[in-house]
Amino acid sequence: MDTYFINRPNLDRLAKSLFKTHKIYAPFKSDENRYYERIRDAGLGDAVLGEIRAVQSIKTFYLPVRTKVAEYFPEKISEKKSRPIAIMGAKSCDLASLKVMDYVFTQDSFKDPFYITQREEGLIISSDCTSYGDSCFCVALGIMPYPTEDFDINLSDIESGYVVEVGSEKGEKIVKEYFKLFQKASLYIEKKNENRTRLKEQLLEHVKNKKIPAKESIQDFFKKKFDSPLWEETAKACVECGACNVICPACHCFVLKDQASDGGFERLRLWDSCLLLSFARVAGGANPRKLLAERLRNRFDKKFNFFPDAIGRFGCTGCGRCSDACAGKIKIDEVLSKLGNA
Amino acid sequence: MTENSYIPIKTKVLDVCEESPTIKTFTLKPEKPIPFKAGQFMEMTVPGIGEAPFTPSSSPHEKGKMEISIMKAGRVTGKIHELKKGDIVGLRGPYGNEYPLSEFEGKEVLLVGGGVGLAPLRALFLALVHEVDKYKGILFCCGSRTPSDIIYKDCVLDKWQKLHKKVKFRVTVDKKDKDWKGKEGLVTTQLDDLKIDLKNSVAIVCGPPIMMKFSTFKLLEIGYREDQVYLSMEKNMSCGIGKCGHCRMGNFYACKDGPVFRYDKISNIHEIWD
What we know:
- By secondary structure, chain A is an alpha/beta fold.
- In chain A, about 35% of the residues lie in helices and about 20% in strands.
- Chain A has two domains: about 5-65 and about 80-210, no CATH class; about 215-250 and about 275-340, no CATH class.
- Chain A has helices at about 10-20, 60, 90-105, 115-120, 170-175, 185-210, 220-225, 230-235, 245, 290-310, 320-325, 330-340, and strands spanning about 5, 25-30, 35-40, 65-70, 85-90, 125, 155-160, 160-165, 185, 255-260, 265-270.
- Chain B is built from six helices and 15 strands.
- Classes of the chains: A alpha/beta, B alpha/beta.
- The interface between A and B is large, with 47 and 48 residues.
């Protein structure tokens, strides 16, 4: 991987240049949280590229809340070409979710054209975490707090700028095109590695207190605890709002809704939630998961049992967003800890 | 651009046949032919209203059109029941796997169907009859709630019974009326004295969840092994292509790994009977 250095004013220039060809989003701070906002020709401004993940996951860019997936009778192929999206400041936990999403939407016999277009054309300029949140537990699942793959360009925050790693041909093209903005990285690489090691160790210590079972044993613990009262006890706090699904970078379930449109009909794809009673219900009323506890367990089943068998990875990236979003204060790391210890 | 699997094919309703008070059979002609195999399912669109999954009930050897039998059970099926000859609907598919006919060859094939579950079995039955020489025999056990709930009445009670000497029928109703001369009792009662070499037989079950459950248990009780029983699972198959997540059962998606499952593959999965 080629490595460079870019200072903040030059990164700002890069963002302004990319604005001409991309819709750029980067995290901005509001109170104590970070939210993706569109960057326009004014450049990066106060965008926060270090710190921790934004509140939204990057799936909002690849699998928007609401997508028109078909217009029919008459069938219209609306080729409204919009500028591809460039995401700045995506974190390692977000990139890990792409493995799950890519499996669902690109690696099956039926492929999703909307997702694929966005993945092929989009640009990911990720960045290292420089701190961690209380709910973060990525390292417990083997995910580092700094990106190691699946980015086009990665930025590691160093006092005066960023160490730049190039992770793809797309990334390489950008560096070549704007080579004047980049410098040699040699002076900064050691510092970057130090920063990474320090944060990783802090995070490992943070996670140690959570007592999450070793990642190799989580699936087995889940299977053993399938009929445990744990699910009913945990479900007592669940209010079935589906916030955990919505906020999760790896929850991919959706529902199709049809409606009339101008002179025809359209089909929308909308995010759905497996915590809702109607999720698996069929016409006539049969429902394999009538109880909330079954639906809650099902969410863990998908993430810690289904995906390990399907792709050899968890359907969870340890970002902790669902713990933060839960109205009932259900913490995913605590549930995992109970799997192994209760 | 990658092909868009969410777009339905425009399809004309050629005919509507009222099978029972709650079930109608729709003869459909899609703009482009849609070849399918018995057991696979289609997503049928009512324009602007929505989609639902159905398994065609006509012979897969019939080209250019297909029949789908639909019970009025919810929002979309309610709208489907309002459809008339000449109306336009949409079809996507076929999706999922088919009945593995090659595994049935040389065997006595037992079909156990209940209510609208006869629909997929009709397609299978017609496919089996199409090459009847390949099978040792076909026994079709049909259960319905009452005589008026029997679908494909002319066929089940008459025409199909005379099709071939290898083909036998057992028809029962849960509750008879004054005109019913046939058997009364749940379809499982017809499995008691099967004159079949069980070792050389396969059983295919389709019907409402509770009927599937008790028929499967009955088959195991009378000596079928789990790997001789095939089920057509009805789950909430929304996208039909393994993406939307609704129809997952354990490590499988009913839409792409099913809807036909050999029972031994799914017998340890929780929640399959609901």
